[in-house]
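Input record, target 12 of the design panel.
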């Protein structure tokens, strides 16, 4: 994780210019980037973890703030006869353009679900038909994600908003910011943390008012 944290400053500098190539490079390296992160984790030996990454087959482009950009971790089998298998589905619409540091919070979240599914398959399976249980496992996953350095969350927020800005201007950037600051908490079964804090949202609003995206980028250059 230290190695990935070291990349953050370099990437934030890169984000000031030529971002189109940056998104393209991330997209090209997506598989390798995901593997890079997942290789840092290990799971119980008798379990097989499949990782799938794709888009949904809709006839429109899904943006990272759209409802249909979710990833999920699914229990496939958990008996001696059927084997012990979990599948992680990573939704490219929300992830593909991100750098390694920005991917970390989301991958980590799914990997906590893998751990939950392995530790208690029955409980994990039940969560899909039980709202309070579903919320509970999400809160637990978010709690663990909070333990990793906050710079990774910030990187995810910064890159996602800049990506939307580059694709379709301020209106899309605003939808991404609203997703992080207002919608995320209660989406799906709920239990998620806010993606973006009030201060970050305020800076975004100010940058939008002044039509100066650099104000927003510069804010993230200040490291505590
Ligand atoms: Zn989750």
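The sequence produced for target 12 reads:
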């Amino acid at each position: 994780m230290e190695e990935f944290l070291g990349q953050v400053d370099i990437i934030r500098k890169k984000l000031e210019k030529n971002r189109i190539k940056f998104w393209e490079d991330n997209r090209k390296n997506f598989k390798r980037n995901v593997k890079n992160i997942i290789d840092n984790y290990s799971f119980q030996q008798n379990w097989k973890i499949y990782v799938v990454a794709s888009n949904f087959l809709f006839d429109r482009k899904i943006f990272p703030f759209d409802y249909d950009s979710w990833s999920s971790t699914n229990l496939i089998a958990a008996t001696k006869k059927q084997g012990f298998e979990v599948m992680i589905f990573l939704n490219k619409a929300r992830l593909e353009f991100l750098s390694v540091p920005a991917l970390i919070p989301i991958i980590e979240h799914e990997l906590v679900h893998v751990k939950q599914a392995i530790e208690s398959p029955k409980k994990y399976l039940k969560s899909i038909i039980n709202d309070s249980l579903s919320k509970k496992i999400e809160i637990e996953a978010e709690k663990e994600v909070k333990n990793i350095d906050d710079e990774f969350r910030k990187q995810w927020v910064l890159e996602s908003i800049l990506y939307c800005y580059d694709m379709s201007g301020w209106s899309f950037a605003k939808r991404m910011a609203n997703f992080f600051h207002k919608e995320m908490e209660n989406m799906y079964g709920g239990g998620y943390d806010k993606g973006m804090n009030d201060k970050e949202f305020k800076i975004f609003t100010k940058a939008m008012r002044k039509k100066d995206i650099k104000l927003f980028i510069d804010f993230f250059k200040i490291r505590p």
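The pocket of zinc ion is lined by residues 109, 113, 138, 141 (CB under 6 Å).
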